[in-house]
Design a protein that fits this description.
The chain has 291 residues and is an alpha+beta fold. It has two domains: 3-181, Sandwich (Jelly Rolls); 188-290, Arc Repressor Mutant, subunit A. It is 49% helix and 24% strand. The chain contains twelve helices and eight strands. The protein has helices at 3-13, 107-112, 116-128, 139-146, 155-181, 188-203, 211-218, 222-233, 237-254, 259-265, 270-281, 285-290, and strands at 21-25, 28-37, 41-45, 50-64, 68-82, 89-93, 96-105, 131-134. Strands 1, 2, 3, 4, 5, 6, 7 and 8 form an eight-stranded antiparallel β-sheet that branches. Helix 3 crosses helix 5 and helix 6 (188-203) crosses helix 8. The longest helix has 27 residues, at 155-181. The protein starts with a helix and ends with a helix.
């Protein structure tokens, strides 16, 4: 069975083949699907052997008897090094948006890829667990990868655009696996202060405390807090709050909540929310509801 046929069989089992696009590339096979499920889908399907990188926006749960399980309530990113396991993944995708973008390389394609990045991904999976998943990938990157390629791109130009998308997905996966493997060399006290500040912000995204109040609650001055937060999470407090408010709203929209309600839930007026959402994700909230 060809790589295209193998992936198409899995996607058909998932009930997502209606919008499936597959494109053979130099580094394997890129596959994309974007649709709205009218009802939950449950399916059982083994993956073809090889390297599978995938990101998406959906509410799903998946389990494999030997490799483990993962669950997403919106955003998700997975990396799987599948060998010759006979057991299938048991998966349920809930009603609502189901958007995905993935790369598949057969074992031979992986050996012949000549890509140090893809080989490093496979090596990290072989050494540290052949199924890795996170529900905290960068939302704007995932949204861009899952958005269908503009039909303006045709022929060789379309293949080139798809190649670029596949490389971006691989780069995101490699960066995530690399960062998660790095030892934490930060002082424990600095990390605890930053993490406590993040907990407070997460609990009050709709109306976050100002810096002075946040610093008092954490027990440091504003300068120490802002420095600790940036060094721990590699982002400013203001940028973190903006990103998390929009990611939370994105999840609410995926669950079917209306735009005005999602905006209110994270402390935005509808007009300001639409502008901020567009700036962050590259499309408007109403565009997500139309997928």
């Amino acid at each position: 069975m060809s790589a295209d046929a193998a992936i198409r069989a899995v996607v058909e089992d998932a009930g997502l083949a209606r919008t499936l696009e597959t494109v053979p590339l130099r580094h394997g096979l890129l596959h994309q699907s974007a649709q709205v499920l009218d009802a939950a889908q449950e399916y059982s399907a083994p993956l073809p052997p090889g390297l599978h990188l995938s990101c998406g926006i959906a509410r799903l749960r998946s389990r494999h008897p030997r490799l483990g399980s993962f669950a997403f309530d919106g955003l998700g990113l997975t990396a799987i090094l599948y060998r010759d396991e006979a057991e299938p993944f048991e998966t349920r995708i809930d009603k609502g948006p189901a958007l995905s973008c993935g790369i598949y390389l057969t074992p031979q394609q992986l050996a012949d890829s000549g890509s140090g990045g893809l080989e490093e991904i496979a090596g990290r999976l072989a050494a540290g667990g052949r199924l890795r998943a996170t529900d905290r990938p960068p939302a704007e990157v995932v949204a861009g990868l899952c958005r269908p390629i503009d039909p303006w791109f045709q022929g060789a130009a379309r293949s080139l655009a798809m190649e670029a998308r596949a490389l971006e997905l691989a780069a995101m996966a490699l960066n995530w696996l690399s960062l998660s493997a790095q030892p934490d060399a930060r002082p424990a006290l600095l990390t605890r202060r930053a993490e406590r500040a993040r907990e407070i912000l997460e609990a009050n995204l709709a109306a976050p405390p100002d810096l002075a109040r946040l610093a008092r609650e954490v027990g440091v001055n504003v300068r120490s807090l802002t420095q600790a937060f940036r060094e721990t999470f590699d982002v400013s407090i203001a940028a973190y709050v903006t990103r998390r408010r929009l990611e939370t709203a994105h999840t609410l929209l995926v669950r079917g909540q209306g735009v005005a309600a999602a905006a209110e839930a994270v402390g935005y007026t509808p007009a300001h929310f639409s502008t901020a959402f567009l700036r962050h994700f590259g499309y408007r909230p109403v565009d997500l509801r139309r997928h």
